[in-house]
Design a protein that fits this description.
The chain has helices spanning about 1-25, 165-180, 185-195, 205-210, 215-230, 230-240, 250-260, 265-285; strands at about 30-35, 40, 50-55, 75-80, 85, 90-95, 110-115, 125-135, 150, 155-160, 295. By secondary structure, the chain is of the alpha+beta class. The protein is globular, with a radius of gyration of 23 Å. The chain starts with a helix and ends with a strand. About 30% of the residues are buried.
Amino acid sequence: MPGNVLRILAASLIFSGCAGSNRLTQPPPLSLHVTMERSEFLPGEPVLVGLSVENEGRRPFEDLAPFSVELGYLGFLLSKNGGEPGRTHSSWAAVFTHEGPRLAPGDRICDVRNLGMYFRSGALGSGSYMLKTVFRARLGVRRDLRPVEVEGNEVAFTVRDTSAISSDETAALQILQLGRAGQLPSRDRWNGIRVGLMGSGYFPEIEGLFMSSQDSVGLEQMASTCLAQGRPLTAAAILRARFDRFSDNLNVYRAWIQRMERDDREAVSACILRSWRNLVLQARRPTSPPHSPVSPAR
């Protein structure tokens, strides 16, 4: 009898151990999908990355963190020409007092990031790159919830050398570099060369340098041009980066979302705008701020 009891206890311990191991190693309920508009970029051109997190579980995902490189929730590992990857690091610290939002089963949130903002002071040199993305999905306010880390699909891309681009693109790059340094050409000169540069990969950023802070019509025209060129992430980035200009008229976002949802290739861009529209609506609710003021990390 004692022998049978020992065998039963041993079997139950083994079973419990396996079950516990399965609980620890079960896949996260979230998936992270990383996209790019294309696989080849001009030197100095913004390298945009589309991010989409979907709840593939059966329950709402609670205490969701933001897509923030600065706060350390989003991380990029970027290797060049097969070398050791460079990593992003958090540069800000915050104390959150309210838990993050919920993501219902089947729902997703999206955003867009410019890799150049996190590597080499805004520009990536020529070469072949491999990008890995990691998202720490829990904000950390709810102590009863386990941390969740999600890895996205790897993405490969190249940045061309300046010697491999056309004379028109070289001229556009020179204008962009001067503009970044605060040395823009005169408005008359820009109007004279603008049409010829509309097909350039540098055009959206150059045009943005001339934009008035109140020129929402011009911004929409820029976004339309990018969509026509098959650059939905650029279109979404233009609208998303200047969402405060549309905060009094969220119907602008609604119209763009409906427009982008008609094309599967622009689905992530529609999700980006929808996510930001929801954030604007959430910020308008008469509630306490979700966290204390943010400060640079030490």
